[in-house]
Amino acid sequence: MYNQEKCKFSKTHEWAYIEGDTAVCGISDHAQHEISDIVFVELPKVGAKIEAGKSCAVIESVKSASDFYAPLSGEVTEVNTNLTADPSLINQAPHGDGWIFKMKIANAKEEENLLSFDAYKATL
Amino acid sequence: MEKLIIEKSNGARGVIFNGVKDVSSLLDKKHLRKQEPNLPQVSEFDVVRHFTNLSRLNFCLDTHFYPLGSCTMKYNPKSYDVLCSLENFSCLHPLTPATNAQGTLELIYKFEELLKGITGLSSWTLQPSAGAHGEFTGALIAKTYHKKDKNRTEIIVPDTAHGTNPATAAMCGFKVVNIKSNAHGRVDLEELKKVLGPKTAMVMLTLPNTAGLFERDILEISKLVHAAGALLYMDGANLNALIGLVKPVDMGVDIMHINLHKTLAAPHGGGGPGAGAVGVRKGLEELLPLGRVLFDGQKYTLLTKSKKSIGQVKSFWGNIAIVIRAYAYLRQFDGKTLGNIARNAVLNANYVRVKLKNYFPAFFDEVCMHECVLTIAKDMPNLKALYVAKRLLDLGYHAPTIYFPLIVPQALMVEPTETESKQTLDGFIEAMKQIFEEAKKDISMLEHAPHKTEIGVIDEVLAAREPNLKW
Amino acid sequence: MFDASSKETKAAMLKEIGIENIEELFKDIPSNLKQAKFNLPAALDEQDLTKYIKALAAKNKPLLNFAGAGIYEHFIPAAVNALSTRGEFLTAYTPYQAQASQGTLQAIYEYQSSICALFDMEVSNASHYDGATALAESVYAACQIKGINKVLISAGLNPQYKQVLKTYFNGTREIKFEEVSLKEGTLDLQDLKNKLQTPSAAFVLATPNFFGCLEESEEISKLVHVNNALLISVVNPISLGILETPGSYDSDFAVAEGQCLGNAMNFGGPGLGIFTCKKQYVRYMPGRLCGITKDDKGNRCFVLTLQAREQHIRRERAASNICSNQALCALNALIYLSLLGPKGLKEVALLNLEKAHNLAKEISQVKGFSLAYQKPFFNEFVVNCPIPAKQVINKLAKKGILAGVDLGQVDKSLKNSLLVCITETKTQADIERFISCLRGI
After folding, report:
1. Does B459 lie at the interface with A, CB-CB under 8 angstroms?
2. Closest to B17 (Cα-Cα) out of C333, C69, C241, C359
3. Residue C104 to residue B407: CA distance in whole angstroms
4. Does the beta-carbon distance from B317 to C376 stay under 8 Å?
5. At what angle do helices B422-441 and C7-17 cross, to 10 degrees?
6. Rounded average pLDDT over B145-168
7. Which residues of C touch B41 (CB under 8 A)?
8. Number of alpha carbons in the 13 Å side-chain half-sphere of residue C314
9. Reported ipTM
10. Domains and CATH numbers, chain C
11. Over the stretch C344-384, which tens digit does the pLDDT of each residue have?
């Protein structure tokens, strides 16, 4: 759904699928694999102001709690409530049904700080 | 496997009270319970059999070697079970007038005297219920101590610390500053100097640290901490390595806690209750929680009001039943023999470390204190600490602490304690060697361990994704 | 003491390590630190220790107890301690290794289930230090849920609990508390209404309250929820044998001191912090939880779960630093509840209710004494005395009776008020003895 090749990535393994001044965000396939079976996602609140590089969600496995760092600054407009009932969606489709939230981008310039898929792959 | 006790319900009665009248009409209907609770309805005998059977599903110290690092699973002498439940102690209401509670108050007072004697710290509170609760008390004392200096908002914690240290600091509204350890598993003085300053309220150190090593630079550290105007907190979870040999006050410790359920031989009870006594150096005593015992030479009383105290961290005066055990334990030593606790604990840990050197090498290859942190040899990339832990259960040993401290990859933290004999340690060492050999031959067998316990590999993901927390 | 190896064995171990003197193991410790002298009294062997500790115990002079105020004297069936002090429970560690701890884990699961049944709540954790600390943690959870740092508390909350709340949050996580006043022993609902007008995360209700009176829980709950706050209820577990449950009046959190369920008073500790909540708030609940799952053979088994909330994983981001529970006290509570069952529990509650009403009636007939409030109560009530309550307590203590709790210690204006409690443990003869001593004042 959110083709990884069209996504922009942070070094901390989040992706943003940018369309104009909005973005859909999630974690990379590599990250879901590293975390392994995801059992819970602490979602941000709709309307929350988030800041690039700051933690805005938490992804839990049985033995870990990983911060989700916002890839861009802005406001959360929608969260994927399906994750509440089935957090394994992230494991199954990190770029599809496992998206985490949608946002309105506050500062388009920050997009320059993100990596292309190829550049991100090179960091792994 | 044992059925749930609710599944055994058959309408029988356990304990019955005679002469009960239905006086519920004394209250308006709206105050009454509408439906009876779904509790077991079984006979007393069923209850006895059920819990006896449940107990048999446990490993425990009385049945198994239990080398859990950082937990100090030492023998819990049986006489204390009897002494702590003497009716004159156990039937005492906490608001009994001091005149009628002189025995308990004297015991508390004398226990504090002993704690002073072994640590050099001049005043103690027995109110905290656990080590973490003691840390919380200590951090609140630091907060109050620095009340006039609003800039002291940070607590420094090394990366080897127990998770409770940073969680405690955060709970008290401090910012947590983590510092990295050096290559020898100890506090890196340069790193410490970088972050230590006018914002530092306190530095929390576990001594010896969680790598089982003594902070050789402790005197330098405490000098730096005090020069910065901060307090030095000692997490006393590992006191078993130092008791009777070193007094914390001599290391420059300002505040510390002792886990009575570790060093002082109170049992762990499957998770508690424990007790976390907190001691402070001279000058901080007025900040301690309320409920301290005072003695005027004739009568023991409780201090229940004080303006400077941080207040109360729980109801009443502390986990007295645990204090009685710890006091009894300390009374079995004198100033000379007390140090044998630490000597024998350190001897046992080093014996295990050396004997397993060629199988599970110590991550820091040097003399350790009361526990040794082993790891998986580099040429065994498929073997994991988790497999070792689970396979040990098959071989009749409780697992060591694994994956802690976080700075050690594949950590196996072994704390034998002083109360284990050489024969027991040798048995454990042989079991570890056996696992080492098995790993070379058939790693998949280890991966699926344990095989002999009643329960096999547990689906923890299912438990977390679909929580079933009650019947 | 407790040496596990002989001198010769130790020497052999040193040899294996490759050293001669045990002091070589301590070479990391600066030598000046090793000069410490330890002045302890002479060591006692088991026989002398037993005599000595028994002599200390004999210096306590227990009284016929009519005090409550948070810690209650109830009958404890012998099977409770006989089972819970088995070494397999007593000397086990926290059940992190599930395969080695199915006994403790199943007991925790059954404890959680029994408490949920008793409280009519959806989730219970494996227990907290005591009632007051459980309340403190629930208050923090409520503030996190609502994103508001203000909480209303009933003036009828146990003063010990108020103290603990103050200690936990004063100058730390900056939660503001405001008291809702009482009127003739129970909450002033108009005052509650007014104070709920400004946003609060929660209201802390205590019923029975500290003065023994039952509150209008239903109505209070509606008021609280209409104003978008959470309801935290503090209750007496034994009373739930007959009284309305926190779940039935829609509490979001319910906490309690569980000592009364099969645990001795022990001069106030250890306690048992019961901590329950609605399912939707489980992620905000600190402390251990045990759940059912399966092993690789499909067997039902038990494991600690939702651990990623806790400090050993979240470190400074955890809601609480707690890393223990009162497992043995919780086990006592579970065994107690299993022995009594719903019927036994109801019997105990009825006995408390009956005896309390008998005693209250008898006391109010003693010249100079009267009941302070005309409100429904369970097993505790306030008596107005003709002289300061402290004097009543002192006089009766000389006759072997603990008459109750002096409320003057809590509030000077209540210096003539005595908080009296009676449970199933007291006989008609005990009541008569109490009354005749009161008459003699």
Report:
1. no
2. C241
3. 31
4. no
5. 40
6. 93
7. 341-343
8. 25
9. 0.97
10. 64-74+343-439 (3.90.1150.10), 78-336 (3.40.640.10)
11. 999 999 999 999 999 999 999 999 999 999 999 999 999 99
